[in-house]
Amino acid sequence: MVEPDQITGLILAGGQGSRLGGVDKGLQLFEGRPLVQHALQRLAPQVGRVMISANRNLEAYRQMGVPVWPDPTDLAGYEGPLAGFLAGLQHCETPYLVTAPCDCPRLPADLVQRLSQALTDNQADLAIARTPLGLEPAFCLIKRELQASLLSYMQSGQRKIERWTDQHRRAEVTFDDSRAFFNINTPDDLARG
After folding, report:
1. 3-state secondary structure of 97
2. Closest CA to 161 of 146, 176, 181, 182
3. Residues 6+ apart with CB under 8 A from 150
4. What is the mean pLDDT of each run of 10 residues along the chain (193 residues)?
């Protein structure tokens, strides 16, 4: 198993928030605090260090007390979650990066430990979460050395996380509690929790 201090956590907060009317999703209040704070609070104890991927309101994100990185400038326009993965890998100083979206305020407290165990047991390059509802590819533990592969994949015009992960030795970890992966996509989700 990979030790937590060998892993950097990356909160993905660079999306367009289109289903929330274009607002910056990570800064929307959920139970009185920005969504990104919930994700940070859940992920930080599981890793050695944490950073945020964001593309707007960078100063507001920097107020969270961790490094904030926008999508790489050599990519044109909004390129989706993989651009956040790439930004994270480019700034990661540990051998591994684990990603989690900002809109999942109840992400599992054992996410990193279980992904790490699966990666090690399967001698994989990356490990992804799965629930009974399907793959959760934004929850991914990645070897930092895959940075060049991801850059090449994105420069070829590809954007699907699963297609990129299919190119590598991938482990999948099933989490039975789908509610832990409940993500906020609409104003109703924010209100309902």
Report:
1. strand
2. 146
3. 82, 85, 86, 89, 164
4. 96 74 86 95 97 95 96 70 94 98 95 98 97 94 97 89 95 91 78 65
